[in-house]
C-alpha cells in the first residue's frame, strides 16, 4: 500500500500498454494512446484560447531558457475534467495532491532547456513554491500532437529521448528513495524545428495542493 499522494511503477504498469523505461536511475513509464485524438484536439483548442508566456522558478538570467507559452486550464471545462479523472484512475494519486493542469505550447525555435521539475531546496524561490504544498513528487506529461520536426523531451542523464506523439503519456518519479530530488530526472524540451508542439503537464506534490 502507498499513501494517497503516491503512485508507483507497479501501479502504473498494471494498466494496459504501459512500459517502464529501462533505467535503474529513474522510475519512468510511457503509454502510447492514453488520450484519443478528439480529446487531444479539444485540449489544444483550449490551450490556443488562453496563453501566457511561460515562467520559471529560480530565474537564472537566461531569457532563452524557457520560451514556450503556458495555459492554465480551467477545471470546469469538460475535456479538463475528463482528463483529471483519467489521471486519477491511471496514477492512483488523490487529485487533492495535484497542481492544476497546465498546457504548454512551443512554436518553431521555442524550448525549455535542461531543468528538473523538483525545486531546489536552497533556491531563491523555494519558500514561494514549496512552503504550502511541499516538493513535487511525480510528473505526468501528455503529448497532444505529432510534431513535424524537433520537440523531443531529452533526459540526457539516462540517455533517453522521448518523441512527441499524439496522446502519449510519460510519467516519472522526481525523487530518490530518500525523498530528495533525483538529479537523473534532468530534462530538456528540445527546440521545435517544424510545426507547433502542444503538451499537458500534471505535477503532484508531497502534500495536498494549497498553492
Ligand atoms: O515539453 C516538454 O517536452 C517538457 C516540458 C517540461 O519539462 C515542463 O514543462 O516541465
Ligand atoms: Fe519539466
TrEMBL record:
Residues 97-206 form the Fe2OG dioxygenase domain. Keywords: Dioxygenase, Iron, Metal-binding, Oxidoreductase, Vitamin C. Signal peptide: none annotated. It comes from the Bacteria. InterPro entries: Oxoglu/Fe-dep_dioxygenase_dom, P4HA-like, Pro_4_hyd_alph, Pro_4_hyd_alph_FE2OG_OXY. Gene3D superfamilies: q2cbj1_9rhob like domain. Its cofactor is L-ascorbate. This is 2OG-Fe(II) oxygenase. It comes from Erythrobacter rubeus. The lineage of its organism: Bacteria, Pseudomonadati, Pseudomonadota, Alphaproteobacteria, Sphingomonadales.
